[in-house]
Amino acid sequence: MANRVLIGDRSTGGYGLYVSKNGEDVLTTTNSLQFDSRMGASAIVHSYGQGSISGNSNVTVTHNLGYNPTFAVRWSDSGDISSGVATKTYSPNTSSSTFVTYEEEEVDEEGEVNWGCEVSHINTNSIRITNESNNDMGLTNRTIYYAIVIFHEADFTGGQGL
Q1: Can you tell me the distance from the alpha carbon of 129 to that of 122, in angstroms, rounded to the nearest whole number?
Q2: Alpha-carbon distances, residue 134 vs 17, 56, 60, 153 (angstroms)
Q3: Where is average pLDDT lowest: 19-28, 58-67, 95-104, 112-121?
Q4: What is the mean pLDDT of residues 19-30?
Q5: How far, in Å, CA of 73 to CA of 149, rounded?
Q6: Which of 12, 66, 89, 121 could form a disulfide with 74 if both were Cys (CB 3.0 to 4.6 A apart)?
Q7: Are 112 and 135 in contact (CB under 8 A)?
Q8: Does 55 share its domain with 132?
Q9: Looking at the 3D structure of the chain, how many domains does it have?
């Protein structure tokens, strides 16, 4: 059985509290640790990126790690961009609204409007970001702008991300 926890002097890091990943020896592993008290945040960045997604479509971000990593995604609506900088950002979420408009007590029009962004692991090498901003009224679908950070650590959030 591997040594998983060390409180004290680690030959490759000095004094601290260290916890290795399951099946790895905390004294000898060269892989990232599950916990390292010397780090402000133990998550090690694998890659990052940004882009835009037109309404009712998606992008696939390939990381090729061979497992589902922890990730963080933030997105903005085009109205939240000023001089190329996001003034507001949102965590992945979606909202759906239905509406009915009346003209003299008769239904004039009705429909549904969706707004938001969803993120999911589509396999052990890729993450999909989906723009859910669309409507059924024939209006222009919104473009969203996203940023993603992918960490080396396995996903401990159940696919929710940070």
Answers
A1: 10
A2: 49, 6, 19, 34
A3: 95-104
A4: 88
A5: 7
A6: 89
A7: yes
A8: yes
A9: 2
Question: Would residue 5 count as lying in a domain?
Answer: yes
* Residue 41, Cβ density class (10 Å: 0-12 exposed, 13-18 middle, ≥19 buried): exposed
Cβ atoms of residues 127 and 49 within 8 Å: no
Question: Same domain, yes or no, for 73 and 124?
Answer: yes
Domain for residue 159, yes or no? Answer: no
Which range has the worst mean pLDDT, 43-57, 96-110, 119-133? Answer: 96-110
Same domain, 61 and 116: yes
pLDDT in tens, 129-141: 999 877 655 555 7
Phi, psi of 54 (to 5 degrees): -70, 165
Specify if 87 maps to a domain.
yes
Which CATH number does the domain housing residue 100 bear?
Answer: 2.60.40.10
Using CA atoms, how far apart are residues 46 and 152, in angstroms rounded to an integer? Answer: 5
Closest CA to 53 of 77, 31, 33: 77
Predicted local distance difference test score (pLDDT) of residue 10: 86
Range of the domain at 77: 44-154
